[in-house]
Amino acid sequence: MEADTGKFFERNLGVFFEEEQRILENKRVMLVGSGGVGGTCAIILARTGMKNFLLIDSGVYDPPDMNRQVGCFIDTLGKYKVDVIREHILKINPTAEVRTINRKLTFEEIEKLMDDYDIVIAEADDLAYSTHVLILAQKKGKVSITAMPVGFTGYVMMFAPNKEKPISPAELFGIPGGMSYEELSEFLDRRENKCGREWYMTDGMWRVDYFKKWMDGEAAIAQVCANVWLMSSFMCMEIIKYFTGVGEPVLAPKMWQMIPSKNKIKAVKFRWRTYWFNKLALKVFSIKFLGLGKRWRKIAWDVFIKKMERREKREKMEREKRRLKVSSLK
Question: Distances in Å between the alpha carbon of 36 and those of 123, 130, 221?
Fold first, then answer.
């Protein structure tokens, strides 16, 4: 049966004027990463009427992707994510133009491709890689966006071009700027720097034992489908608001902070004290004179371990409370 694509997006017109819908149809979207967030965003934007996509991802679907990735099914395991998402987009809108690249590109290649697209969605599994993609987009004057879902919490951040005093993506993430991709990768993988992401447990509700495994490189980022898709939806809403002018987009240095575990979703402004604290800590921990940096790292680590031990005790009590709460609902 031939699809009547003219009626596919007509309900949007209860919100948009015809010219605003045409704006969305004509925008060109570049997605660096087509997994949990990236793949879901592509599907949502396709259902909104967008029809020009470039999907970049070297990954194939593996069993651990099943809990959250929109294109992961029994019959897509082992298939390239970009190919599966492309098929889904074309099932939604057969007139869409979807280009795919199933390998990891150099930053020179990424930068060159940006010329042909209106927005860059940075959702590679590699945070250092995504950060540099966002930095490149900012340099090229392209609007860009990313989300960082973690367990039961996360952020959505959109960077608009031509803003006065633009904030760097690295700064907004609370990590030192000016690092090469290799330096940033090494920095983010350091065990002592991972312990600074305690909010993965406090807001994201990670179990302490899982956080320890993640710090040791023995576990991946813990995710829940509902939270990943929530972040994806907010990303798409910001993209739609930005291009149509319907609503007020949340742009850096503001960002969406989402803590479903505490029933909080709000737009907040970046706190510079977080950035300067992280920068100062990095300098202090790097002092070589009389081994001061090493001593400070040991003190900080010992304090962190004690906090973890206290949290692990509280977690055991919370587990019993949760069990009793669920039992009372039956």
Answer: 9, 14, 12
- φ/ψ of 118, rounded to 5, equals -90, -25
Token pair for 222: 């813990």
pTM: 0.90
Per-residue H/E/C for the chain: CCCCHHHCCHHHHHCCCHHHHHHHHHCEEEEECCCHHHHHHHHHHHHHCCCEEEEECCCEECHHHHHCCCCCCHHHECCEHHHHHHHHHHHHCCCCEEEEECCCCCHHHHHHHHCCCCEEEECCCCHHHHHHHHHHHHHHCCEEEEEEEEECEEEEEEECCCCCCCCCHHHHCCCCCCCCHHHHHHHHHCHHHHCCCCHHHHCCCCCHHHHHHHHCCCCCCCECHHHHHHHHHHHHHHHHHHHHCCCCCCCCCEEEEEEHHHCEEEEEECCHHHHHHHHHHHHHHCCCHHHHHHHHHHHHHHHHHHHHHHHHHHHHHHHHHHHHHHHHHC
Domain architecture of the chain: domains with CATH: 5-189+223-272 (3.40.50.720)
Average pLDDT, the chain: 90
- Cα distance from N-terminal residue to C-terminal residue, the chain: 47
How far is it, in rounded angstroms, from Cα 172 to Cα 224?
A: 24
What tokens appear for 210 in the block? 């899982």
pLDDT tens digits, 319-330 = 888 888 777 776
Strands 52-56, 143-150: pairing is unpaired
φ, ψ at 115 (rounded to 5°):
-60, -30
* pLDDT tens digits, one per residue of 85-130: 999 999 999 999 999 999 999 999 999 999 999 999 999 999 999 9
Which residues neighbour 311 within 8 Å (Cβ) at sequence distance 6 or greater? 201, 208
Task: Give the pairing of strands 153-159 and 143-150.
Answer: antiparallel
Give me the sign of the Cα torsion angle 200, 206, 208, 214.
negative
